User: What shape does this take?
Amino acid sequence: MPRSRSSAKKAGATFERQIADYLRDELNQPIDRLVKTGAKDRGDIGPLRDSKNRLIAVECKNTSKMALPQWVREAQAEADNYGAHLGIIIHKRHGSADPAQQWVTLTLQDLVKLLR
Assistant: This one.
């Protein structure tokens, strides 16, 4: 049985909260869920910063159906909207409730930008 729109929104919000809390606690940064801003959305949680203090846009996905090309485009658009260095996708690893065990996806180009 597929999710209803309201149950999908609730699952997404819960996943965003778990990821934001985990990153906040692990990185000692003031990370929280971001307000949705429609066409100029900046991602789901923030402000996440790398070791050089560059902003990273974070798109969270809690779905069993992968849509990586779409998600990458969305994360890149949100990075542009946010003025971020790059965008990443954190997506649910089904079968694991531990926030530390969720998947993170980004392009190889963005990985190089992050590590450079």
Observations:
- DSSP finds three helices and five strands in the chain.
- The mean pLDDT is 94.
- The radius of gyration is 14 Å.
